Protein 1
Amino acid sequence: MSTDTSGGAPGTGARAASATQPASATNPASAAGPVSAAVTSTAAGPASAADPAPPADPAPAAATSPAAGRHAAAVRPRLDRPGEELPAGANPVPAWIRFFVSELRLTFGRPRNLALLGVLAIVPVFFGIVFRLTLSSVNGPGGGPPFLNQLAGNGVFLALVVLTFTLSLLLLPLSVGVVSGDAIAGESGLGTLRGLLTVPSGRTRLLFVKYAAIMTFSLVACLVVCVVSLIMGLILFHTGQVTLLSGTTVSLGSGVLRVLVVAVYAAVAMMSLGAIGLAASTLTQHPVGAIAGILVLTVASEICDQVQQLSAIHPYLPTHYWLSWDGLFRSPVDWTGAEHGLVSFAVYAVIFGAIAWARLTSADVTT
């Protein structure tokens, strides 16, 4: 029951009635002074006085504006950079993977690099036709170089012959040198290097992504030469069991597998050359200078490797172990030459990779 003790003032009966309800007694703020009376008078109605409505949050209303939507977008933690935020709806793939994929698109999307791969694909076709005509000439198999006799026995050897020619004639080194020499110097020459470093991608991450793209290009280039050579060899020459250098006969599948291993070995050799090119690319803003330096170094190493008076330094030359894969075509497989070559390639990659890192991380990039 309720008693009107307010002297008949309008609305006072309602405030008194709300003050005597048990639910309001539990709220100390609603039991004192005119402020509580005003609050209870506004709370009367369907809403319970014991549970006043919370203040309206202006955020939902503000979020309807474009500016508020952009401000409220950064609410999720980054998966690739701890402590940073990822805008809502953004790709959760780590940034370094997106950066690497973008670099691959740039590397394999340039017409110049595609032209280099096209030339490497044409070389096996040219040599295959030339060797086929040579073997079909009047002189016969005995009139040509010794390796032509092995090629006449099985077309698988065309891949080894062409791979040797592309390394000796500097076709593969030139292709890798163009890509690696342009990696940093090209960005600097175009004025995009500073922008890449403010994404932020980080100088170390940028260097690793660039070298990973060089490694990928090296592998693809060697596989293009190898696969096209195998196809041309199978088309133009006899196929069947493969006779190894040791005289042992293995199946065609085993021979093809050994050829692919040789291609991967050659790719690792080109990756070490790519590390040298990447280091040269950090020393200049002109890609042509870096590419020329790589070619000069390669030619000088090849010349020194042929001079017997310099045999003491042969094992330390970057090109000395490029063709040390003949043990893979023996039975049992002799890994000695290949192991020495892999160690040499790794040492060169580490040394020149460290030089590239020290140069890039300490350089004052202004372009």
Protein 2
Amino acid sequence: MARGLVCDNCGAEYPEEPRWLCERCFELLRVRYEAEEGKPGRRELADREMSLWRYRERLPVDRAGASEVGWTRLVEAKHLGERLGLERVYIKDEGTGSPTGCVEDRGAAVAAAKSQEFGYEAVACATMGAGAAPVAAACARAGVRCYVFAPPGGEREPLLGASKMGAKVVLLDGRREEAERFCRDAADEYGWGFLNLHLKPYWAEGIKTLFFEVAEQLGWKLPDQFVIYVGSGVLAKESAKAEKELRGMGIEKNRGMRVYGVQLESCAPIARALSNDNGCVTAWEGSSTAGPSDPAWGKAAAEAIRRSKGTCQTVSKEEAEKGGELLAETEGLLRGVRTGASVWATKKLAENGKLRPEAVTVIAATERPVEEMRGSARSLRRIRPRLSDFDKLMRNGFG
């Protein structure tokens, strides 16, 4: 059971409320739980639903949300392993078993459920596109209105998909950072829950269930090596939290899970930080759709990767496409660019001797191809990032 929020940096504690930053040191907050060792354990989980809600003692909601998300399959990838020179490779396939086939479905499901507990009638988010469809799907299932704000250069397909699921999608002139500032102002003005701020710690708790599932599917063991794409950094950050909680739940002891992050060369602030002596995550120069230039969980992600004795591998867009082709050719799985990047990064890590060939390696396939999210561009609205312009759009019913 969740007991509130805590700052890992200074130890300050806060009640369970819409909050994401520590007032003392301005570091990110995380959800803390009652000290119940072993909950939930194998006995409790034996007869539970096959979704992320099976881990309810480790989620910050009073009751399961409406979205049936999680318990995606873990595929043994023998043919891919042979091509990579690795003996035991598995794909954690987020492309199956969730509303939009993205790992973000997990975070969105918990955030939407939490927004209802907080009494929000609408949820707003600012995104480059990737998180739009999962948020829209979760809000639709929860019966909560959804507003998505994105820069004009964002990924168009997820935005169109969000629009098809009832979200009001608004393109704001400027960069992502301006969209986030505007979204915060709009959420304050209209009393909405802002996913990027108010609900951020609760979103992260949904993401960690991916690691819970993998440990269960491997027979209550953590893999030796986990390769994951890190955009915002939340997956890498939550790997450390999940491992700690899993040890309390009674997983078998091993030498520990090494986390290997993946980023595209065109936007790699976390990889750059891990390659520098000071390890400081700084904003990436220039605009890119490859990921956030200043990732929210960048510092925590870099620390988690470093402490696990892993690293962060970069690949080019062309290599990511090759990785997608390799996965399709060897295992018959068509997945998105982030997954392709992770596959090719695994290849490079193996060739450079960074991965142990005999170890259990899991690659996270975090999304389906975005081309599946079709819709009409006429459903998108574009305005200047001004509340007066948005208020006019609201009064006109987005007409």
